[in-house]
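hey so u asked for the seq, here:
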Amino acid sequence: MRRLILTAAAVTLLHAVTVRAETAADDPVVARVGGEEIHRSEIDAVHRSLPEQYRQMPVEMLFEPLLQRAIDTRLLANAAEKRGLADEPAVRQALERAREGALRDQLIQRALEEGTTEDALRAAYDAAKAAPDFAVEEVHARHILLESEADARAVIAELDGGGDFAELAKARSRDPSAAQNSGDLGFFRREMMVPEFSAAAFTIAPGSYGREPVQSQFGWHVILVEEKRITTPTFEDKKDELQDQLARQILDRLVADARDGVTIERFNYDGSPVAPQ
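ran it, structure tokens below
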């Protein structure tokens, strides 16, 4: 579980690896509280801590409420200091945990900055491209979605009799989009469709339709394959995936290096010794 949590932290930090360099170069004061400065980097940090729907909004749009939050945080922290709360054991423990988290995040962030450069990503792409399974098969297909097997077999019988697949899709398919696209699904890869559908579509010869209806969670499908092709993903296609892969590898190395030579003792939740395996 700890490794999973750290992996998530690495992937999250991966998308913010330029923050430290940017704020170091240009981090203006945005407020003063009793003479203490609040810098723009603090606003950016609060913005990054927000839920996803708010992080997608430009920080400038949220600047005023974020600034007020930063000011309030500074005021309340100063009030806590005046009361001597920083000397309480529970607060000291919380501060130490925060310190550990900040140190961990900085270590990961700096390792990601060094290990996920454009050159590193392109080298990873070139290595992946050399693998025999890098190129992927895609199918361009149409389908007619029916409610029952009997309905699907009736459509196949109409096709056998010379019926036009596109027109039948418009008239008979339960797929709401069929009226506009005649059942056209465009090109897709195996993983983009439910398994039952892909298993059938990738075995049908181009220019023909399946003689057996295919059942999925959506109903019964009659499938026509227009075309098949093999495509090689571009660097831009794979860039995000490669970043995540490198981030996981970097994190694994960091943890392995940190663990090297360190004695680790584990205990049960109640503090009792762990029974020998």
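Strands lie at 29-33, 36-39, 136-146, 184-188, 208-209, 214-216, 219-231. Residues 136-231 form a domain with the Chitinase A; domain 3 fold (CATH 3.10.50.40).
lmk if thats what u needed
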